């Protein structure tokens, strides 16, 4: 539901967990300046369907590239049948290639710098990414620094961690082929990585980072095990729910020029369509796969949900679930999370898990910013009609409880405490969240240190 201009301009005070929460209004969002009146829909060109991996060679050639860097995880290179299909397609169409397989799962700034260093020494005019979000995000960064090299890696990194310099112009062709159903990275102009020195993740965000083409082939997900399906699926959950509940695009200051409009604009009528449909597909198909991992129709549905959610958050943005997840994921080496992936030796908290664990606490707090949207999501998740007139005041609580039930159904940990975090970690988690301005600015409530403390307390 879209609030009237009167309600938008009204500064309402919300109460949750004994914390006073202020909803964003035009005055605090813009500092008194003019409000934005336009939104954009920018997206990667997409092709979806079984077998489209074999199109890659034709597409690379017609995008104008003749010698590409193929970016892939080492395990996928040797074990995934789709990679052989990709390479055969490049050969068939006369595309030369070099393979980079030095991918780090949940990449770091250091792994990104190493990938860039490799790229600068190669004569390539395009990129093909075959893998999950870690692979696709690394390929985007390789493409950027190959096209527009700089002396300091931090030049393009999001402020305030880096300089936040806008990407100067279009990049070389990049074809992204996801092998998981979750990140939606094939659709977005965002690359995320860990910065151990600050104890949090950050990234680079600009519309020019978007791949030229996403080939979404559900066949590439058919062999995923339980956790490699569930955790990316929870990323779909948060992408859809956060972009649907994000602050509206017309509640931020107008950009001085189209070039300065942020990649994350806030929710719009178009992003809402992608978000709610993605949420429906996720809720149905992630459950079906959890019950029967061999259900290919459900895997097709989840792959479609992932790319639809990518279109939603790639334009609207994500907010508090992702903002709070970055210091959580960065602290993996300090706690003792369960090892979910047999092929990964380092300690890590899978991204989908790190965004899902704060979700119930986040949406309990944001519920009153737009009760109708929160209750609509709760209805989809539970399959039950939630009466707005009866539950409006408790929208956040209703959605929060439905999230906890959903996570229990999937067999996912119920709180940060199960990963080894304690209340003593909350100050450092809050500190690691505060610099995430790119996503916090999209939150439908005013983000304060007090509010973030409440989120983490509720997530324990």
Overview of this structure, please?
This protein is 45% helix and 11% strand. Residues 1-17 have low confidence and may be disordered. It has a 6-stranded parallel β-sheet, sandwiched between helices. The protein has 460 residues and is an alpha/beta fold. The protein has helices at 5-9, 26-30, 56-62, 74-79, 81-92, 109-120, 133-147, 226-245, 269-291, 296-315, 320-330, 351-356, 359-366, 371-382, 388-391, 395-410, 426-433, 437-440, 449-459; strands spanning 13-16, 19-22, 45-48, 67-72, 96-100, 126-131, 174-178, 190-195, 200-205, 213-216. The two termini are 31 Å apart.
Give me some keywords for this one.
460 residues, disordered N terminus, alpha/beta, two-stranded antiparallel sheet, 19 helices
Question: Could you give a short description of this structure?
Answer:
This protein is α/β, with parallel strands linked by helices and 460 residues long.
Strand order of the largest sheet: 3-10-7-6-4-5
Outline type: globular
Low-confidence stretches: 1-17
Give the radius of gyration: 21 Å
Q: Tally the beta strands.
A: 10
How many strands, what sense, and barrel or not for the largest sheet? 6 strands, parallel
Q: Distance between termini?
A: 31 Å
Class based on secondary structure composition and strand pairing: alpha/beta
What is the architecture of the largest domain at the second tier of CATH? Up-down Bundle
Helix residue percentage: 40-55%
**Which CATH class of the largest domain?**
Mainly Alpha
Counted up, domains total 2
């Amino acid at each position: 539901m879209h609030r009237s201009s009167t309600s938008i301009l009204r500064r309402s005070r919300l109460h949750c967990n004994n914390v006073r929460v202020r909803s964003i209004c035009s005055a605090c969002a813009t500092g008194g300046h003019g409000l934005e009146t336009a939104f954009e829909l920018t997206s990667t060109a997409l092709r979806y369907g079984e077998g489209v991996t074999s199109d890659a060679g034709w597409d690379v050639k017609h995008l104008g590239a003749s010698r590409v860097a193929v970016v892939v995880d080492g395990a996928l290179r040797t074990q995934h049948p789709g990679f052989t299909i990709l390479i055969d397609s490049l050969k068939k169409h006369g595309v030369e290639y070099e393979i980079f397989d030095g991918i780090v799962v949940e990449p770091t700034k250091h792994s990104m710098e190493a990938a860039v260093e490799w790229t600068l020494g190669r004569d390539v005019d395009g990129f093909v990414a075959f893998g999950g979000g870690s692979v696709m995000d690394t390929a985007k960064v390789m493409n950027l620094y190959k096209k527009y090299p700089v002396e300091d890696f931090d030049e393009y990194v999001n402020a305030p961690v880096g300089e936040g310099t806008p990407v100067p112009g279009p990049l070389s062709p990049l074809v992204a082929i996801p092998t998981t159903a979750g990140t939606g990275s094939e659709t977005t102009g965002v690359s995320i990585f860990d910065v151990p020195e600050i104890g949090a993740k950050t990234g680079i965000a600009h519309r020019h980072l978007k791949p030229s083409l996403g080939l979404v082939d559900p066949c590439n997900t058919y062999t995923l095990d339980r956790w490699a399906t569930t955790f990316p699926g929870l990323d779909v959950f948060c992408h859809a729910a956060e972009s649907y509940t994000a602050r509206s695009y017309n509640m931020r200051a107008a950009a001085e020029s189209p070039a300065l409009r942020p990649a994350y604009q806030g929710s719009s009528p178009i992003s809402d369509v992608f978000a709610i449909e993605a949420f429906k597909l996720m809720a149905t198909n992630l459950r079906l796969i959890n019950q029967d991992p061999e259900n290919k129709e459900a895997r097709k549905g989840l792959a479609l949900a992932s790319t639809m959610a990518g279109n939603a958050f790639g334009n609207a943005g994500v907010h508090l679930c992702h903002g709070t997840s970055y210091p959580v994921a960065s602290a993996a080496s300090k706690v003792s999370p369960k090892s979910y992936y047999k092929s990964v030796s380092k300690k890590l908290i899978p991204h989908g898990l790190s965004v899902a664990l704060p979700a119930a606490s986040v949406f309990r707090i944001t519920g009153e910013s737009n009760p109708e949207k929160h209750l609509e999501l709760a209805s989809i998740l539970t399959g039950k009609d939630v009466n707005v007139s009866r539950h409006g005041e408790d929208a956040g609580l209703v959605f929060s409880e439905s999230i906890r039930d959903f996570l229990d159904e999937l067999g996912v940990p119920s709180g940060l405490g199960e990963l080894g975090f304690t209340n003593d970690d909350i100050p450092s988690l809050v500190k690691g969240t505060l610099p995430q301005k790119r996503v916090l600015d999209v939150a439908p409530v005013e983000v304060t240190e007090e509010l973030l403390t409440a989120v983490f307390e509720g997530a324990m």
